[in-house]
Structure formats: structure tokens, C-alpha cells
Specification:
The protein is mainly α and 202 residues long. Helix content is 49%, strand content 5%. It has a two-stranded antiparallel sheet.
Length: 202
């Protein structure tokens, strides 16, 4: 006598059994969903249509809200500027003084060397480094950074150079350099024109 496994159901028998239960008024058990083998979903009397996937809330905004900027105080800005200028000007003055006591080609060479140092330092520190990272040597000591006011990213070397040129406007009666003392965003005229801000580097 051969044994019969009650779990062996002929194909289509399960569907006919659910249809009979539906016609008799009984509610069949819900479909368990896709099988572990990855077969496609098939409709049943209890679930005649596939359930749509949950949709994300279109009103939700996952964009991080930037924190309120911390503008650098005027003292930190001024101290950083003095450091940058000192590193540029002091070697230049020393070269000029040494050239005054030298003769011939030595005097010319010392003057050229001093001017070359000042230009190289200005371009490398105040234009390239400040444009790429927002930090100069002086700013690194004082913990400040020059960034775009809109995106809070470095402004690039072109805007950094243009900002240095516009500092000539700030130098008129020193009003522009003193403007961060009363401006709400502590900006000079050059900062306002190129849309930059000096922030505390966190």
C-alpha cells in the first residue's frame, strides 16, 4: 500500500478550493505573497489586485537646514590681515634696506628678490590659497575662513583676486575696513560687492 502525502496538491486545486470557499461565503486565508523561490505574484479571491508600493511623502524635505553662520569678529579679521601683510612686507623691507648698502648688481638683485617674494606671497596666500580653501596663513592662526555668502563654499581664485582689488575702496579713509564693526554680517565693502563673508572656522 503506497502512502499519500496530504501536502501534495494537484496544480489548480488550490485555486478551485479558494473559489469554492468564496462561493460558500467563507473568507479564505490571505495569500502569503511571493514564494521564496521568486515566482511572480498571482491574483486570488482575497487579493485580486497587487498592492501598490508605499510612496514617499512628496512634501517631505530631506535637505539639511544650514546652521546660522557665525561671522568672524572684527578683531580676528584684523589680526589675520596683519599677519598676512607682515609676512609679505617685512622680507621686502629687509631686502630694500640691504640693497641700500650694496653696490652694483647686488643692489638690483636684492630689490628684485624682495619684490618677487612679495608678489609670490600675495598671489599664493591671498589669491590661490584663499580662493581654494578660504584660509590664509593669518586666518589659520585666528580660526576664520572666507566663504561665499550664498553657498558657504570657497569663492575661487578669481573672486579672491577681485576682492583684493576692491579693498582699495575699503582703504578710502579706512571706512571699509572699519565697516565690520557695525555691519550686521560684518562685511567690508569688498565683501558686499563680491558676496563673501568671513566666518568662524568650526
Amino acid at each position: 500500500m503506497s502512502g499519500h502525502d496530504p501536502d501534495d496538491v494537484p496544480p489548480g486545486a488550490a485555486a478551485r478550493r479558494d473559489d469554492k470557499a468564496w462561493n460558500d461565503g467563507a473568507v479564505p486565508e490571505p495569500d502569503a505573497g511571493p514564494s521564496p523561490t521568486g515566482t511572480l505574484w498571482e491574483p486570488t479571491p482575497t487579493v485580486p489586485f497587487p498592492r501598490p508600493p508605499a510612496e514617499a511623502d512628496p512634501t517631505a524635505d530631506d535637505t539639511p537646514v544650514p546652521s546660522r553662520p557665525r561671522y568672524a569678529p572684527w578683531t580676528s579679521r584684523a589680526a589675520g590681515w596683519v599677519i598676512d601683510q607682515a609676512v609679505m612686507v617685512v622680507p621686502l623691507l629687509l631686502a630694500i634696506e640691504a640693497a641700500a648698502s650694496a653696490h652694483g648688481g647686488w643692489a638690483v638683485g636684492l630689490r628684485v628678490l624682495g619684490v618677487a617674494w612679495a608678489v609670490a606671497w600675495f598671489v599664493g596666500n591671498r589669491v590661490v590659497a584663499q580662493g581654494r580653501s578660504g584660509v590664509t596663513l593669518g586666518r589659520s592662526f585666528l580660526g576664520t575662513r572666507l566663504l561665499l555668502a550664498t553657498s558657504r563654499r570657497p569663492c575661487g581664485w578669481r573672486l579672491a583676486l577681485w576682492r583684493e582689488v576692491l579693498h582699495l575702496l575699503d582703504a578710502l579713509w579706512l571706512v571699509g575696513f572699519l565697516r565690520p564693526l557695525w555691519d550686521g554680517r560684518r562685511r567690508t565693502f569688498a565683501d558686499s560687492l563680491v558676496q563673501t563673508s568671513v566666518l568662524v572656522d568650526l
